[in-house]
Records
---
Amino acid sequence: EEDIAAAPRARWPGYAWAAAASVLITLLAMPLLHVLEGANIVMLYLLGVVGVALRFGRGPAAFGALLNVAAFDFFFVDPRLSFSVSDWQYLVTFAVMSAVGLVIGQLTAGLRFAAGVSASRERRARSLFELTRDLSAALQAEQVASLGAAAVQGHFGGPALVLPTDEGDRLLLPAAPPPGFDAGVADWAFRHGQPAGLATATLSAQSWHYVPLKAPMRVRGVLALQPAHARWLHIPEQSQQLDTLARQIAIALERVHYVDVAQRAVVEIESERLRNALLGAISHDVRTPLTALIALAESLRELPEGPQARAARAIVAQAHELNALVGNLLDMARLESGAAGGAVNLRREWQSVEETVGAAIRAARTALGGVAVQTRLPPDLPLVEFDAVLIERVLVNLLENAAKYGAPPIVVSARVTDSTLEIAVRDHGPGLPARLKGREHQLFDKFTRGQAESATPGVGLGLAICKAIVGAHGGDIHAASVDAAEGGGAEFTVTLPRRAPPPEPPLADESAESASPP
């Protein structure tokens, strides 16, 4: 790049050096006039042309060749000190000398140019290799930005900035932008994924050039550059080099991003495993004294009506609440450990949907209290293959959730398609919280509740258990608010995969009749 910048300034010194070389050769050859033949003096002049061509290119070499012909004619051809030629053969000498000088200058200048191109390519390849080597050891986006800016600045001579993105995929702008830097143009290049600023068709009056850092997955930032010479960006080789540097920086930023994602995932997995182990251990240790507490509290219910009897009933109710909480903790730990081991142990059998729904309503009767539950089940529901105990637990949790946060009546409905069974549990309460609109799936995360601050007891594990059980069956569960025009409320829908049930075996008398001879 230094050679490219210096080329315009090197032209007139080249012509001056060509004239000086001609004068110097003439002064050296004058004392040797009676010693050297004219052909040897011509060789000295041709040697000077080669030297000028090697150093200054074809223009000064051609000028030197013509100047050498004139000097040879003036000082060494009779009559000397005159441009007159007494022997016409010298005209051939002059023509050959001019032609050979021009050809030698052209060839030498061509070799010089080719050598310069090769050296420039070698410098570009070396700078790219050094940047790739340094970026391979970078582990943070700040390191990538620093190394990339230094490499671009070293190659193009002007200030450079690498602007990565934050976790929200927003461009990180410098706190103290350098003179001429325009944050609006950088943001435009980032959002549109196109170069802008200097040497582009977009906002070309800018003194900075902005290049989006396009990685394989997405744009990872912007490279901003103010080259030492704006015309460099119009040279195809330099423009291609800039694009290559930007590509390497973008790939490094994406690699660092996914390294951070992988590290966070490992930390979350380890934290989840430790939490499940602690929950399982604590729940097992709490279960034994809790069972004894419930038994003792139940024995106090026989007391005569009075303050002691009411206290005993309150103790029993709270003990059952705590027992349900411990059961949820144990179930969650067991389901999580089963999922981590590769699969949850399911006892799939062909079950009647009506019987499973009825069993769930009976099991949830204590939590439901006096809340009415309506069932809307088609009479022709087929048998479906699932784990009846676990699906019953899902329905119990959904019924308890509807009783806690909704309003009566609670409606349990079901329908089947060719490949799925859908069971819906709906209440007629206020519906899902407005803050979860569009993010209803967050209700099924562990330790998440619809209302962050609520007097209703619970820790937010019931729906997480439902999701884990349904997921183990290969199904899905989702929640939605019902329009006020349809009565309002919240509806939780469980979708389970199904296949055609096996054919019913023939009756005993039919088998005997078919086996008897006609």
Note: The chain has a mean pLDDT of 81.
---
Amino acid sequence: MMKTTLLLLPVLAFLSLHSCKEKPSSQPEKIDRNAVVTRHNVKITTIDTLGSLNVGNGKFAFTVDATGLQSFPEFYEKGVPLGTQSEWGWHTFPNTENFEFSETLKGYDFNGNPNSLYAIQDRANDRNMAAADYFRANPHGLQLGNVGLEILKKDGTVAKPEDLKDINQELNLWTGKIESHFTVEGIPVKVITYADFKTDGIAAKVESPLLKENRIKLKFRFPYPTNQFADRGVHYSNNELHQTTVNEQKGKSFVFNRILDNDRYFVKAILNTEASVSKVEDHYFTMQPDAEDSFEVAVVFSEENPNETLTFNEVETNSITAWKDFWQSGGAVDFSACTDPRAFELERRVVLSQYLTRSQCAGNYPVQETGLTYNSWYGKPHMEMYWWHAAHYPLWGRTEFLEKSIGWYFTAYDKAKLIAERQGYKGVRWQKMTDHNADEAPSNVGSFLIWQQPHVIYLAELIYRNNPSKENLEKYKKLIFSTADFMASYPNYDAKNDRYILGKGVIPAQECFDKMETFNPPWELAYWKWALQTAQQWRERLGLEPQTEWQNIIDKLSPMAQKNGVYLAAESVPDSYSPTSKHTIDHPAVLGAMAMLPHNNFVDVKTMGQTFDIVDKVWHWDHTWGWDFPLEAMTATRLNRPEDAIKALLRDETTNTYLPSGHNYQNERLTLYLPGNGGILSAMALMCAGFDGNTIENPGFPKDGTWHVKWEGLKPMP
């Protein structure tokens, strides 16, 4: 089993270079951001399928192998794949069976709403299952194509991964530059790669004596979608189902025209020298540049026929400028004055997580959990994960990146309102697994989750805290008030005890409970109360009277159930932590009630502390997800248990593995997991800047003299 300890970088070297003489965060001197960032430049020296690197602009990303391009996509298929994805790149298979979304709906009687309609996967109904499968898989994220090198050996055969020797590749995080050196049969090759920040494209410069002998070609290969949970960009079958044509056979500029069913896009290659194109087979082309020792190429992916005349120098300038602006904006954290040997690895994860989220999760829409590398869950974003993808941006003083993607909620509003209406509720019920058009994906789990509901209130509140303007109040009030309307109409009134209950009919964040039996999960209760209170505050800020129905829920919402001095996983789960319990797997969601949230006079701090102890002891941490460790660290920080916060962030579990690139590895199915990266950044903001009412400096770090953490530009959490 892969353990994080196998991936630690040379800690002792770091400690020998950085003394403890720097002042803690309260001192005014500025952090040397370039030094912090570049000491974590990624270096690759072997062919490693988990060592691929990416360049990207936040709405487009391009992942490369040891050649600096996508020369061996099939070899990397089982690792971190060599994907090319953009936020506009979607494909839909023809609906040949004429499925209607209504065929996925099934009626339930929850909370006094008979025949509430939920989109599910009914395995007892073949037609329903077929319809559910279709709408889950369509539309799906599209792999736009592979751009790599074809290198010929002396005997005329094409070089394979094992033919690459003397590999020395480095990602410069400060500039977004990947510089790759290697040899083939002793002859050197050098490739420099950048992503463009003005188009969805990349540029590369290739240098090698092999060019003089026409032994290096560019290759362009276009896969077809898989119609599967994952699409790793190497499905080269079904050639008859799509079309690829190129406009020229010789010249400096070439446009590939791609048609897949009713979807179409273009790929334009622009070289600084003449080249000739040859068709190897359908959807597979090589390009032979007329070059003595080097050539440059820019490749642009576009929905429309591109007219760019992009050059390598322009892309290089765009990348250097954009990355410098990013790193010099917002927050920064410097661990160089720390003597605890764990500090370097923690700083590495923090720096690389910023690079990965900026390059893959900073576009105009919520993103899937595998970003813009390869499809997971068909490429669809999960809105309960949106907090983990995006909350760190305002907490790190980079609010503009959240402001771009949160606009999806306005697009989704009408469809979310219809979901609430068909289930008998007011307001809007936000989709769980969805797409850019806000269509709902049928699911036996997702359709019953509710903890995505308050996210928009939390995230809008973070935006407002960073810019408390009337304009922001007016902009987001529709989303907040309609969200609160649903949240007030959803709980079920318990007349006997004069209280409101969440459930039955709910699957909590810890997704291992039966929706037919579960009620009052703790994280959802705490989040419900806090979000409704925050919605009331927005009304007050706008000069409006409190909303009576909201306040009724706030005042009479069920308390978090407890037994033997600890909070239960749900009121309906009295054996939450017993030795025979099957409930100590998946997300330790009970801790979420005091992680991103304040105790709010709703969570008893002593009881949560005792709950933390038992969760820490009995939980199956090998059966968790990447964001569970930041979740635990945030709870530990609010409980004033900083050593536990550090331990949580660096637990030696497979799902807490951070690859050389910084990607959060989960398993063979999910070789990267960006909610883990976003989560560690949010946790770091809390551990440094604290939370409202906190009086402890750097509350998430031990006060034993070994953690002199210096930071600037971070914002406290609520």
Note: The two ends are 38 Å apart (CA to CA).
---
Amino acid sequence: MTEPKLPIPLELDSDEQVILVGKRHWIELLQSSLVFLVIGFITAAVALFRAAGGTLLIMREGVSRPLTDPINVALLTLTIVLVALWARGEAKKDRRKDTLWRNPDVLYLLAILALGLAIWFRSIGGELIVIDPVYARAGDAINIVLSLITMFMLLAVAYLYNDWRNDVLIVTNKRVIYDEETMFIRHVRQQILIDDIQQVNVRADTYQATLFGYGKIIIRSFSPRTLEFDFAAKPREIEKAIMDQVRNLRRRQQPDLLRALIEDQVYGNKIPPQSAPALQARTQRFPIPALYPPNPEIRDDRIIWRPSWVYVLLQLFRPLTGFALTMFVAAVLVQFRLLDGVAVSLVVLIALLVFGVWGWWIRESLINDTYILTRNDIIDVDRRPLGPENTRRAQLSAIQNISFDVSFVERLLGLGTVVIETGGAAGGKFTFDHVPDPRGVQATINDYLTDFRKHEKERQLQDALALLKQYDQVQREHGEKMDRESFEKAVEELIGRSLNNRSANETTVDTLNGAVATQIDAHLRRVARNARRRAAIRALHERMRRRNSEQPS
């Protein structure tokens, strides 16, 4: 099976594969652009009508038309229909207090009056619509305005088409990514790990959705966080692709991990540790390294991000502009001889002090606003100049969703904001503001999160395995379990004691046979009891597995 082509740039792990790329249905594009299409069509039609010589309400001298004229008959028939509908509405009228323009009586009267005037106008020689080259007005101001409106409507439709085309839902064997890009405004990306998906729902509860084959995808995780993709084309295929990956992961994850732990913990066959995921962080360096450290700064497996130096320069623009304006004013005052040399020196010194301290304060505030990622935690450190510090920390297990938000200007500058939503005791959001390459930051956090959760499951299974080993040891201490070595040793002791008593050979043989038979019988009973216990445990596991598989997806 060929891998679907990605419509957007996406960094994938070495073993990550794209399974499906879901897009929005064309009905969503039609709904969002319908108003612009209608306005564009009307303005274009009016402009062409006027360019071809079309005009309205022309009076012909010496011409009259009877009521039997076909057009007059059609207008009169329409007037009679409106009068009948009005009369029927009056009979069933609910005396409600409506506003003037919402009152149906007013609307009916206006329509009947307009039709009556049209009939009268045609009867005295007027024409409602005329196309005559004499009246062609292709290049007048009204037609130019109509043409400009039409072009603007077409540009709006093209913009909406580009926005519609860029909204995708990507399913890989590790995660589901929702990417929404609004041109010139912002770029938002959300994702949920396959391992965190609890259920996938498809909502197509309207006749239009059933007829045209679109729906709303709702992906729920084990946290309250959900991912929604509205107007999805072929929603059932998307649902099946996601749930297939969830089932495949569940199917191969637990047995492989249990087998590896049993080999390691019980039989001593050490499994070589898997290497940690490779870092995907691309370091941004300031032209003068002494003024701003590498971003991110990598120390072993500890990654430290700071606001981009481009953002820092933008923030320093204010004190630099203030200093430049002060120098300009001082130069003007010197030019008009309002300041002498001593005063100018004092002004320059004060300006350097004020704006220099201001710029230093901004730089120190931003350079010490750090976002730290470790193998176990995310840490947000906000340290102000001269000491005050605020630190927030949460375990990677508390992360519920990772997304990034990039506006049009931020995309041009190569920076953005990464938002990490957490639950549990940590609660709230961790916001990595104005970091370089937000897409790479999201990918790196996702790699660390995947690695953490994998090892977290290993730790849970190790605890369960240690509990089983302790249970086995207690069984042996209480004599509920006898291994082969203990059984053979007990038989040898019985045989030795019996053979030492040669004076009662027959009695010895009977005693030996009875003792051995008793031990064997007791051992067989223990084996049967343990077999029943294992069967009960297997039945319990099978019941739990069925219950999990019967959960709605």
Note: The first strand starts at residue 18 and ends at 23.
